[in-house]
Write a structure and sequence with these properties.
Blueprint (H helix, E strand, L loop, with lengths): L1 H13 L5 E4 L10 H10 L1 H6 L1 E4 L12 H7 L16 E5 L2 E5 L9 H17 L5 E6 L13 H13 L4 E4 L11
Parallel strand pairs: 1-2, 4-5, 5-6
Antiparallel strand pairs: 3-4
Length: 184
């Protein structure tokens, strides 16, 4: 089952010399089912004891229209520098010479326009910082994908030009459950 494969991956990550792990959403199957969260945290217990996990919210974390368990478990422990009302879903942080941005790409839960304004200001500040060499973004829904979920036109319209303007080095996304890469 999924939970066994997830535990094997988490144990493999825990055994590596990583400072933290980013997670692109869909951590569990049903956001409103407590047992899914219990099994998830059991699978991640070794990883969580030794590494910081920096998540992006995915569609499976939602219980109807709200990710309330996700909010309960994560929001208080994540940076609060994102858009208003999106603690735990929209934030950024620096690590060494890299800047990381977590965006909320769940269309029913996000105001793309307010995130775009915040993202532009955040990346402008990171670009002006002489200590920042790398810029990374992670989210759940991909802007581009050949997968069955395709790309997201709203993300492209609101965020695409900002990502290009500030020369983001890498964008990570989940949702499609496949590996793709491109080179411009």
């Amino acid at each position: 089952p999924y939970i066994n494969r997830h535990q094997m991956l988490c144990n493999w990550l825990a055994a590596r010399d990583y400072e933290f792990v980013i997670q692109t959403g869909d951590m569990i199957n049903e956001g409103g089912v407590v047992l899914d969260w219990v099994n998830f945290y059991k699978a991640e217990q070794n990883l969580g004891k030794s590494k910081v996990v920096m998540p992006a919210v995915g569609n499976h974390e939602f219980n109807g229209s709200s990710p309330w368990y996700y909010n309960d478990f994560y929001a208080a422990g994540l940076p609060t520098n994102g858009t208003a009302g999106n603690n735990g879903k929209v934030y950024s942080f620096n690590y060494g010479n890299a800047h990381f941005v977590s965006l909320c790409s769940i269309g029913s839960q996000v105001n793309f326009s307010s995130q775009a304004a915040w993202l532009a200001a955040d990346l402008a500040a990171a670009s002006a910082d002489p200590n920042i060499v790398w810029k990374f973004i992670y989210m759940h829904n991909p802007i581009y994908s050949a997968g069955t979920h395709g790309g997201d036109k709203n993300e492209l319209a609101y965020w695409g030009s900002i990502i290009d303007q500030y020369q983001v080095d890498m964008v990570f996304a989940g949702h499609c459950h496949l590996y793709e890469r491109s080179y411009p």
